[in-house]
């Protein structure tokens, strides 16, 4: 098997085709031979009958024409008058014995087997002493069998050769396409996934090329997103660091009041929050083991989040929650629901309504509708909407939902916006 795997694909295909063709051909020959055997025996009998008719229609005292595959015995007054090709019987019978057997046997045909040879007889009684016997052996069968075998052998060789040539041409074209695809795939990293993969055709190789091209576009898009994120994170960190540095230098130079250290603390908190978001986003890449998941009470988590937020806002937060559960982790669901609620608090005018019914969780806020063209981009990291920057929060929400097989949708409805989460 290892040696077989080391062969070229075209060689494997030709070898398999040849083995299958030869094997099936022998089975076919065996089956057909059994079917044709009876047919050829019948042909032999038919040609014997035709010759028998010629012999018995020959005028009296005239010698019948000889045949290559048949012989005859003509008796008159109990004596052998004519004979032809008696050697066909290979010495297994004598003229007198045949006359004795068939002159009293009913019917007009018979066959007898001696060893592996079978002999066929046709006879006519004109009177008790006038008798004609026509016979044949296996010579006719041997000749037709040789012709048949030669024809089948030539046909078999032609099928194998034609099939192998066809398979060779097809496999060479196929292997060339595979090699071309292999070369294009090997160049992906060198071209930084920028060069598209193009493969003509509508077969499985073209489908594979299309799938690889789709993967290339996703990798290219992912790289672009990571590059944008890196730039945005760098810019995001630069401002609080610059503020912290400037106030720290002012305090060190005694040109700032001590109470302005609160600004440094506030900027440090901003940095801390951004670092926590980055760590949260990174943790999602390792959240793949379902053994860590459990059935989590959604109602319990949302009530905990609301209790933490009730002294931070004047908005009314209404809830209507059943006892549905998600198969996930508490920590990650806490982050998801917390980020959605933070977003709602940022944009709501007067109230937020959270409902949970039959595992369908809805966060409604009565803020301004989101631009339709922006809804699809809402979950991209650092994507900016009509009212500023969403940062990493919504991106974390979407990726976490995907990990737990949850669908996340955002829809504009009358008088507000809804974030909807439900299982696939």
Automatic annotation (TrEMBL):
Q: Which domain of life is it from?
A: Bacteria
Task: Give TM regions.
Answer: 12-36, 148-170
- A Pfam family matched in the record: HisKA
Keywords carried by this UniProt record: ATP-binding, Cell membrane, Kinase, Membrane, Nucleotide-binding, Phosphoprotein, Transferase, Transmembrane, Transmembrane helix, Two-component regulatory system
UniProt EC number = 2.7.13.3
**Protein topology in the membrane:** Multi-pass membrane protein
Give the UniProt subcellular location, in the record's own words.
Answer: Cell membrane
Q: What is this protein called?
A: histidine kinase
- What top-level class of enzyme does the UniProt entry assign? transferase
Catalytic function, reaction form: ATP + protein L-histidine = ADP + protein N-phospho-L-histidine
Q: Does the keyword RNA-binding apply?
A: no
Q: GO: which molecular function terms?
A: ATP binding; phosphorelay sensor kinase activity
Among InterPro entries, the record links this protein to: HAMP_dom (IPR003660), HATPase_C_sf (IPR036890), HATPase_dom (IPR003594), His_kinase_dom (IPR005467), HisK_dim/P_dom (IPR003661), HisK_dim/P_sf (IPR036097), HssS/ArlS-like (IPR050398)
Broad class of the protein's primary localization? membrane
GO cellular-component term (any): plasma membrane
Q: Does the keyword Transmembrane helix apply?
A: yes
